[in-house]
Design goal:
Length: about 400
């Protein structure tokens, strides 16, 4: 009989969802978050249908739906010729009660989940608590924690490393973060200019060999929202150059009116990786979310796959802790989530980037034509939407023994 709590290192969206999913099943859980409060930086902002369904089951889907913008249609565009394909998630409304992409900043989900955790007697979130390492034996995990009152050790039955891409848990496990980092960084900025006026749907991907981009409307002080746009940059550029007004304006003017200046509400630059940890488990220590895998944002799959990890892992951990399942069932978590990430999330996001940036005009034309045909054929469009909405990846994971 395990008496120590499960400790989750990292109070980002994945760690908090893992904690809520465990606590809802009666497991005592502690979340260690190194920051003083929920980080509010702008990062992922797309939730796919199966993710909203999982959040519904945890009692927090409704609050997220209230805060987000439903985007039922999205476009693939060519920078010079305009719309290539438009996909309508209504085609898969028999597969999900949420046939749309839900756009909402991830920190709003974190806040909703945090608030739900504070209502539960078996869950605690400790801010300003940084996990610095761990040791483990057959009976549990001893976690070193830096706290405002000095170093402490917490004894846990299991440790979930949801401490992001630079995960100290992953490094202590000695797992490799296998894969690569793209040479170019991504510029992300936001403008209140309403792109619907130019025929854009709330989510659009624009193909171009040099200046491809991805566009997502986000909620911002009510409708019509604010438009986040991600562009690649040249590998040699300095951060100051990338973030300069002149460079940001040149990117947005490149596909809108070249004679107009656009208000820029926010801008940032970040490095993008395609990596998967060599294992997600070392005995009683498990990885989830960005600690376990990282990918480019084209398709909005990183955070979603992290939440799918969190829910999958919590179900198995609760079953192990209640004695319903042997500890070995945690290896099934690794097989299901690691394999699906490689086969599906890594492959799709790399393919999405290659589609947008293709330089060879013949290959480019061929791929865009293929997408045009896919969108025009109901059966093909449906199959494509089941993949891009991540329904297929969740179904695939369930099949893995
Ligand atoms: C700048 C940026 C922009 C992004 N934009 C997009 C986007 O547009 N679309 C998209 O799909 N994805 C995007 N991503 C990726 C997306 O944000 C992640 O997939 C998502 O945040 C993963 O959630 P997580 O909870 O696993 O990790 P995180 O959100 O990174 O949360 C990890 C948490 O752990 C805490 N922590 C770290 N170390 C410790 C420690 N040792 N002890 C305790 N706590 C610790 C951190 O403070 C943080 O709160 C972006 C990422 C970055 C960095």
């Amino acid at each position: 009989m395990e008496t120590n709590p499960v400790v989750v290192a990292g109070g980002g969206p994945v760690g908090l969802v893992a904690a809520l999913a465990l606590a809802r099943q009666g497991v005592e859980v502690i979340v260690l978050e190194s920051e003083k409060a929920i980080p509010r930086d702008l990062r992922a902002g797309t939730f796919h249908p199966p993710t909203v369904e999982m959040l519904d089951a945890l009692g927090v889907g409704g609050s997220l739906l209230e805060k987000g913008i439903k985007v039922p249609e999205w476009q693939l565009r060519d920078r010079s010729s305009g719309v290539v394909a438009q996909f309508d998630l209504g085609l898969i409304s028999d597969e999900t009660p949420h046939p749309f992409r839900l756009h909402c900043e991830q920190h709003k989900l974190s806040q909703i989940v945090h608030d739900a955790l504070t209502e539960l007697p078996n869950a605690r979130v400790l801010f300003s608590h940084r996990c610095t390492g761990f040791t483990q034996d057959g009976g549990g995990v001893s976690i070193s924690v830096e706290t405002p009152s000095g170093p402490e050790e917490i004894r846990a039955s299991y440790l979930v490393g949801a401490d992001g891409a630079h995960s100290i848990v992953r490094k202590t496990m000695n797992a490799e973060f296998e894969g690569f980092t793209w040479p170019e960084r991504f510029l992300v900025f936001a403008t209140p200019y309403d792109l619907r006026e130019q025929g854009f749907t709330g989510n659009a991907y624009v193909a171009d060999p040099d200046e491809w981009c991805a566009i997502f409307v986000q909620p911002h002080e009510g409708p019509p929202g604010i438009w986040r746009i991600a562009f690649p940059t040249q590998p040699g550029m300095s951060e100051d150059e990338i973030l300069s007004e002149q460079f940001v304006q040149s990117r947005i003017k490149g596909f809108l009116d070249p004679d107009q200046d656009y208000e820029i509400a926010y801008r940032s630059v970040y490095r993008v990786h395609q990596r998967v940890a060599s294992t997600f488990r070392e005995q009683r220590v498990l990885l989830a979310g960005d600690a376990a895998h990282a990918n480019n944002p084209l398709g909005g799959m990183g955070l979603n796959s992290g939440i799918h990890d969190a829910v999958n892992l919590a179900e198995k951990l609760a079953a192990v802790l209640s004695g319903e399942e042997p500890q070995d069932c945690l290896d099934r978590y690794v097989r299901q989530r690691r394999q699906t990430n490689i086969e599906y999330v890594q492959a799709t996001t790399i393919r999405n980037k290659r589609l947008l940036e293709e330089r060879d005009p013949d290959i480019r034309q061929e791929r865009l034509d293929e997408m045009r045909k896919t969108a025009a054929d109901k059966d093909k469009a449906r199959a494509y939407l089941l993949n891009s909405s991540m329904i297929a990846s969740v179904q695939r994971a369930r099949q893995i023994q």
